[in-house]
Amino acid sequence: MENKGDPIASHAEQIAQFDFSMVPEGRPAYELVDIQYDPASASITIESNPPRIQTIKRAPELSYRPGKVEVNLEQQADIQIDWKV
After folding, report:
1. Residue 3 Cα distances to 7, 13, 27, angstroms
2. pLDDT tens digits for 7-62?
3. Residue among 22, 23, 5, 2 nearest 14 (CA)
4. What are phi and psi of 19, to 5 degrees?
5. Which phi and psi (to 5°) does residue 41 adopt?
6. 14: Cα separation from own chain's centroid
7. What kind and span of H or E run contains 9?
8. How far is 18 from 20, CA to CA, in rounded Å?
9. Which residues contact 7 (CB under 8 A, 6 or more apart)?
């Protein structure tokens, strides 16, 4: 502090030890396990069941009142052009 330095940072630099490695040391973990197996054929038994559909026949649920259709034409096609020579 007297020499305008940072004593904590300089002390950390002196005692710091970095031991960082990206490459694994020794054999990979999957090589350390001994696995033995005997392949066998798969035995699958399937029994199909027909679908069981239980429905109740019902009349349609709608209401309809017969009527008539009325078509009204408010204005027929008409065009007027006024001009002078």
Report:
1. 10, 17, 51
2. 777 777 778 777 766 666 777 777 778 888 888 888 999 999 999 999 999 888 88
3. 5
4. -125, 85
5. -80, 150
6. 52
7. helix 7-15
8. 6
9. 1
Tokens read off for 40? 């066998």
What number is the average pLDDT over the span 64-79? 82
Token duo for residue 17 = 């030890």
Residue labelled with tokens 């020579």? 85
Name the residue type at position 39.
Answer: P
Whether the CB-CB separation of 8 and 14 falls below 8 Å is answered with: no
End-to-end, the C-alpha distance of the chain in Å comes to 105
**Residues in the chain, total:** 85
Phi-psi region of 13 (alpha: psi -120 to 50; beta: other; left: phi over 0): alpha
